Amino acid sequence: MEQTPSQKTSSEQVNDKQDTAVPDTFNTGQIFTIAGGHFVHDTYSAFIAPLLPLLQERLATNYTLTGSLAIFTQLPSLLNPLIGYLADRVSLRYFIILAPGITATLMSSLGIVNNYFVVAMLLLAGGVSIAAFHAPAPAMIGRMAGRRVGTGMSIFMASGELGRTFGPILAVAGVGWFGLEGMWRLMFVGWAVTAVLYYRLHEVSAKTRTKPAGLAEAWPQIRRVFPALGWIMLARAGLLTSLTTYLPLYMEDEVEVSLWLAAAALSILEGAGVAGALLSGTASDRFGRRLVLGGLFFISPLLALAFVYYPGWLAIPLLITLGLTAISPTPVMLAVVQDSFPKHRALANGIYIGLNFLVRGLGIWLVGVLADRFGLTQAFVIGAVAAFLTLPGVWFLPKRTAVVNK
User: Domain for residue 42, yes or no?
Assistant: First the structure.
């Protein structure tokens, strides 16, 4: 039988307070260690988009089948809630430690095979590694960020954006150095980073500081927060997948630039996303999550439409501003999740990442179908217009998400 507060001993009451207290310390060293691992991990996971034109040529596939290759990295996101549930109870630090090396191996091996099914299986295995990293890592960041969760998430997400900025350049450079078949040589950097993460993190817990709440206790908050987040993810799926997956194909087929320039366009977008990710989470700590999200969700579709209709000399400035606005909401949404589930951070993060990856997979498929039927330009336009539907979802998010106790 559960004790009431009056029946608990003084020591039990002290322990309860310690469980629910928000630590003050912002552990800079460990946060930047995990962020560095995120940078390298996402550098390799970003190989798929810039290699799609080469894979499309090698495998002789249409836009739907080519874009669907990226979906295979999203399917293991179904495991994220389970991984998050476990991460709240046992430390899954080795998932974080091993993921950069494993992801590097799988993504660098895409050029070895020329069969669609085998490429898909490599990407599916890569998706498992990606899921294993992204479910517990933000929860560990939330644990180490103390009261500055938004800032911690900004650093974490900015490192991932920096990896996705560098990834296309490294992928295309690897093709130039070794050929598509010889890219496997790039994997060794990933394993070197895994060794560094082991040295730095093998004694660090990845569990939440608070005692995990039961699922029954978390369920009302899940029903309150995730429908609004799901609505937002669905509405912006077409815009995001157009920019982050199909942009190299769009630049090569519609704008008619070289593979290097197509990869550079993606790097410019993701590079600006680094600054956007750093700014958005920190700004949301100060001005509020909903205000920041509403502004970003209104501006980014307008910029995407301008990019499609005015692709000339404005292309680079528009890619930069799209990176600042279209990609940067993710740290704020992660902060909403972390704030709303202080006793179930890894589980809630796993649900968010899983839902986000599934919606992203749906968006990749839909944009591919639209591109085959109407062309990539019209697919980009439809995705941008649909993104305006994110705005109603913002106002259904919790009004006060911060757990800071002053």
Answer: yes
Q: Which domain holds residue 232?
A: 25-394
Residue type for position 271: G
In the chain, % helix, strand, coil (3-state, to 5) comes to 80, 0, 20
Nearest to 51 by CA among 105, 103, 107: 107
Give the pLDDT band (50/70/90) at residue 305: very high
Q: List the CATH number of the domain containing 214.
A: 1.20.1250.20
% of the chain at pLDDT higher than 90: 31
Domain annotation covers residue 88: yes
Angstrom distance (rounded) from CA 156 to CA 28: 11
Tokens linked to 307: 């990019």
Would you mind telling me the total number of residues written for the chain in this entry?
Answer: 406
The dihedrals phi and psi of 91, each to the nearest 5 degrees, come to -75, 120
Q: Is 208 within 8 Å of 343 (Cβ atoms)?
A: yes
In the chain, % of residues over pLDDT 70: 85
Query: Is residue 166 in some structural domain?
Result: yes
Task: For residue 104, count CB atoms less than 10 angstroms from its CB and return exposed for 0-12, middle for 13-18, buried for 19 or more.
Answer: buried
* Distance from chain centroid for Cα 311: 27
**Closest C-alpha to 280, from 166, 400, 161:** 161
* Cα dist from 211 to 9, 26, 345, 363, 403, whole Å: 18, 20, 11, 36, 16
The answer to whether 208 and 88 are in contact (CB under 8 A) is yes
Q: Is residue 406 part of a domain?
A: no
Q: Which residues lie below 8 Å from residue 276, measured CB to CB, with a gap of 6+?
A: 161, 323, 324, 325, 327, 328
Single out the residue of 136, 158, 132, 161 nearest to residue 42, CA to CA. 161
Mean pLDDT of 182-191: 93
CB 20 within 8 A of CB 342: yes
* Structure token digits, residue 371: 């591109």
Count Cβ atoms below 10 Å from residue 113 Cβ, excluding itself.
15
> If you average pLDDT over residues 58-70, what whole number do you get?
87
pTM for this predicted structure = 0.67
| Number of folded domains that form the chain | 1
